[in-house]
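Workshop exercise sheet. Pairs work together: one partner reads the sequence aloud, the other fills in the structure field after running the prediction. Swap roles for the next sheet.
Pair: D.N. / O.F.
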Amino acid sequence: MKTGKQKCPQCSSSRTKNKNDKPLSVHYDNGELFFKCHHCGWKGKVEGSDRPSARAVAYTKPQYVPSPDTPNEKMINWFAQRGIPPHIVKRHQIEPREVVMPQTGKRTRTIAFPYYRDGQVVNVKYRTHDKLFRMEAGAELTFYGLDDIDAEFVVFVEGEMDKLSCETAGLTSCLSVPNGAGTNLDILAGVERLLEPVKKCILAGDNDLPGRQLQSELQRRLGPERCWRVEWPEGCKDANEVQMKHGSGVLRACIEQARPVPIEGAFGFDDLRQGLIDLYLFGRPSGVDPGWSALKPLYRPRPGQWTVITGAPGSGKSAFLRALLVNLALYSNLQFAVFPPEDSPPEEYFSHLLEVYLAKPFDKGHSPRMTQDEMLEAAQWVDKHFVILNPDDGERDFDSLLRLAKALVFRRGINGFVIDPWNEVEHTRAANMTETQYVETCLVKMRAFTQLHGLYNWIVAHPTKMAKEHGVYPAPTLYDIAGSAHWANKTDFGLSVYRDKTDDQAPVEIHVQKIRSRWCGQLGVALLHYDRVTGRYVDHRAGTDAGLPYAEAGYEEIQ
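Structure field:
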């Protein structure tokens, strides 16, 4: 069964109208294949369905037949100048081929690098003498060197020449990304089973900013606990340069001397050297723009830190968070996994995101609603940036949700994880554990998970029953959150959403009550206007700074 929209075998043949409609939705969720017909209601799960290590896509297999002749002498000399011996070239069946290059529209002589999986050519990369590249249209985009993976270790590099250089140095278990530092690492999902047993992942990418960014993303997805980083000699950018300038012995030594990525414990300068240099050259990460000019000076979420959001019932906590997530997806191209148990079935949460994205209501009403075509087109964008989690009962406890989010870090490269709200998580604790101890344990896990994978994470947590002041509820503080004062102590960012329900024209107040890193904001109150029709938030006073000094709100800074 393929994923996507299809004809329903239960009702399509009996329908007299719209026979060509495709009401059957088929999708993977947590590694299993589910289907549901939105016409007749037929639904279920395909028993024995596999995890989506490779999505159900029909790839084109290139017709690549290696020549039985001796490899082209001119090409062999070209590789020899780059330190790659003939037997390595022949083993990989690299040959000269003439193809039309899309950059020029002309038929050009190239070097062809066939990509193998299980002994079959699944793609071919063509390279010209002036470094123009092309891959086969419709073929599977994957790593170069899949058939060489060894469970003990894998070296990750940025180009086929680097992979061949490592093999020349005796390190055959090496993978190259297909498109250099710009590769979309969602291709990891297609090789999950091959990489799952690998004990050691050695990151040996290019020694430049894009290369380091690629290595950081690989580290985040593969898990830093099994990652090592290579340092190249002065003046060398990549493995092939080391091979050409210093030879196979030095290249092998560099890779064998790779340092494990620090995870926990005590660190010395040698462990922190490169990170400290990067911090000095490029500055401390000051967070990402939340999308509102009033809030930007106060709150800029950053990877590796998490946020708790609280507020009185009906204050709009979830609506604000949805609008924030859409902003971050739009302006920073982030992806999120969201567990929204109060918005069930998941289609309802999806519809809220569509409203915020399109600025049009989903339902019929006084305002013009989104058209079906607009809805379906916008759904493609939402699908790219959001995964809605809806696990079965018994799998909604905190540890199970973290495991599910971790799998999505690897498969989809999600940047953030959301629980909205906390009280809908299935909470089980030992008989001798107090609620305060339980909350502390969970929040320690949340921080470790957030830091380990460099995520932007949020939890919506309700306050305890509050007393009204002058007939209205005040804005709750982080210490008012039900369960434990650890909500205030453990979080990196703390926000409280407040809306005066006695005045429909009053702005929504976003109280920024905690900022752990001062370069990511400051304490204060941002004023936003909430559009009930679309779920959007906009700056309350357009063109002006709507932020208020936090002191005016009467709170003290939380340490």
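Discussion prompt: The radius of gyration is 27 Å. What would you look at next?
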